[in-house]
Amino acid sequence: MTKLALGTHPFLLGFEQLERLVERTAKTGNDGYPPYNIEQTSENSYRITLAVAGFAESDLAITVEDSSLVIRGRQNDDADGRVYLHRGIAARQFQRSFVLADGVDVGEATIENGLLHVDLTRAVPDRVVQTINIRKG
Question: Is 62 exposed, middle or buried (0-12, 13-18, 19+ CB in 10 A)?
Answer without folding.
Answer: middle
